[in-house]
């Protein structure tokens, strides 16, 4: 027995395999879970947000296999890296077909179509100084502003700072804590009701855009899946978001989810397009940026959880992120071109 054990330990191929396969296995498991069309587990919901970082790190697996000369592990490592890259890299490339597809009675957007500029910001419990946000609105001149974590005090401060002079129509659903929301527009607005989950007041309405007709907009903000007891609220909130329909629809806000999360992938499968992804800015981190947040003492690198999802008939002309003081989210801004209604 001692001789057999010594012989097994002394084989160079065994040691090389013991080095190569443990390097490949974690990335292979990550890729497999990423391809599952659903939420595997609460902890996976937290982890999958970091898929872009894992995809970058996965190049180490085939490199290790190459260095220790394990060809099968090398092929497996390359397959895993290619799989993860296929999930992530398209976000850094501009959409080759930005106009999407037209629906019945609607012509797909083009450069000559009606423009719509939309800005979204998470105010971190209403902490953003009103003057700073109003100044950003003046500079970017959005037609629609969606706000998350809008408190009554923040709402009053924004109105005093002149927000409603610039964007006079509003669905203001301010609330203490993180559940408040707001939708402010340059054009006439008819508030709409959404299914409330755990009391979250996601503002929504129909905006009458000149030349384009009614456009449905939602200020998105599901529960943050920071704790297990909030996982159900998070998943139900995202599942309750309306899909594309007869009206042109835009979902804008803090989704607390990246393009790697199954509920967001379901929205994209339903026809929505992510404005950042369409312009090659899909890897721009939006949270946290002001200071490092931590979970259990571990710092969190920036991830992309704020999105502007647009109807498949909408063209995306530009996308950008902007800093605001006293919040750990970057504001996001998109210039869209809407379809025109046929006669």
TrEMBL record:
Pfam families: Exo_endo_phos. The keyword Coiled coil does not apply. SUPFAM superfamilies: DNase I-like. Residues 119-329 form the Endonuclease/exonuclease/phosphatase domain. The keyword Transmembrane helix applies. InterPro entries: Endo/exonu/phosph_ase_sf (IPR036691), Endo/exonuclease/phosphatase (IPR005135). Keywords: Endonuclease, Exonuclease, Hydrolase, Membrane, Nuclease, Transmembrane, Transmembrane helix. One of its GO terms (molecular function) is endonuclease activity. The chain crosses the membrane at residues 14-33, 45-68, 74-93. This is Metal-dependent hydrolase, endonuclease/exonuclease/phosphatase family. It comes from Microbispora rosea.
